[in-house]
Request: fold
Amino acid sequence: MMSGLSGPMAANRPQLDRIRGVEGLNAELCFSCRKCSAGCPVADDMDLAPHQLVRLAVAGPEGEALRSSGIWLCTSCQTCTTRCPNGVDVAGVIDALKQRAVASGVKPRDGRMLAFHRAFLDDVKARGRVHEMSLTARYALRARRVPEGILLGIGMFQKGKLPLIPPKKTATRELRRLFERGKGK
Amino acid sequence: MTVRVLSYYPGCSLHGMSREYDESTRLVYRALGIELRELANWTCCGASAGHSLDQELAIALATRNLELAAAAGNELVAPCAACYQRLKIGEKESASPVTVLHALDVISSPETLDRLRESLQRPLSGLKIVLYYGCLLVRPPEVTGREDYEDPQSMDQVMAAVGADIRPWSFKTDCCGAGLAVARPDVVRRLSSHLAEMARQAGADCIVTACPLCQANLDTRQDKGGLPVLYFTELLACALGLEGTESWWRRHMVDPVPVLKKAGVI
Ligand code: SF4
Ligand code: SF4
Reply:
């Protein structure tokens, strides 16, 4: 069984110090067969492919993996994790690399997806539920760019797909506590 | 007659961009005697932003909703594959007493399939479809508990029960680009256009999905355009002859009306 996901213990997994040896990720079992990269939908768009990221996570230099734009392109589709013959949770390793890059303040070569994830969590924290229009505005501010899909967004708005008025705020005080609890660990 | 009561977690998309999925899910479930009780204070599951940036927060965001469901005492159903995945992980990590289901799981149970066949008003035999399950509904099997994750069957069973003409294809679980749509639309366009092209080559009139992110990516990022992308619940509502479907079609970027009319579905 692979899975960094089983067992209540894992819920208390701290922000990772080292990816090598983290229970459930099994990164050190990789023998570089590249099956993960072969099935990855975005491997061609990545500067470092999934099997290379696993290798760097295990053997270093880890900084190379943390700066990579590849980790931020991962769609978390779980194909790699599902197919790895050695039970390496490849998508989990990539998540761990992202979390580590953020925790240690490493700037990715391409900051767009990080800006998007941050904007997304900002919206969750502020409202409890994500409002697509606010999310897009937050992303534009965080990424300091006009979102590429803005014309499409206008078309979707005209179709009535994007509500202008945000939903009522939900449980925001409680969520703030959850967000703060996660900080600094 | 109500045969089953479930807690309902619509998720952010179904209250925003994908209201037609929310409405069609509610309508079809009601017609099949399944009562959905929306969790009053549900909050966002955290999606891929959560687990990308902060593992502990990601689990906490899911667990919070599971606690609401535990208090309600019913199984919890989510129509979004991404929410389903996050809640399912939360279920395992927090050893929750609540069972998390995807909207498709409920419909594809043997009893519900029987009810679907009994209530069928308009068989979809004129409609050629391919079924797109996407990633997070099926993978990884350690989370979803599915054995047929490389060639899933539940949507096939459901759409076969209402008589649709299901075309075989090999792209049921290939990724559409998921949450990259805002920041990297170029990548989503490449992946989604390829899927649409493969669907066309398989002879399909439309693609059927069970996730608001998959639907949005495929509906909005086809290079050639023209292939409608529908929710399985929208087609079930047609097959059951339910009222109130008209307002859904105009919310699609690729207009499905010509294809549905031609196939005698509406
Ligand atoms: S599939 Fe598994 S063993 Fe093969 S390269 Fe990828 S992580 Fe390593
Ligand atoms: S989870 Fe990420 S790395 Fe793995 S196959 Fe999918 S996109 Fe590639």
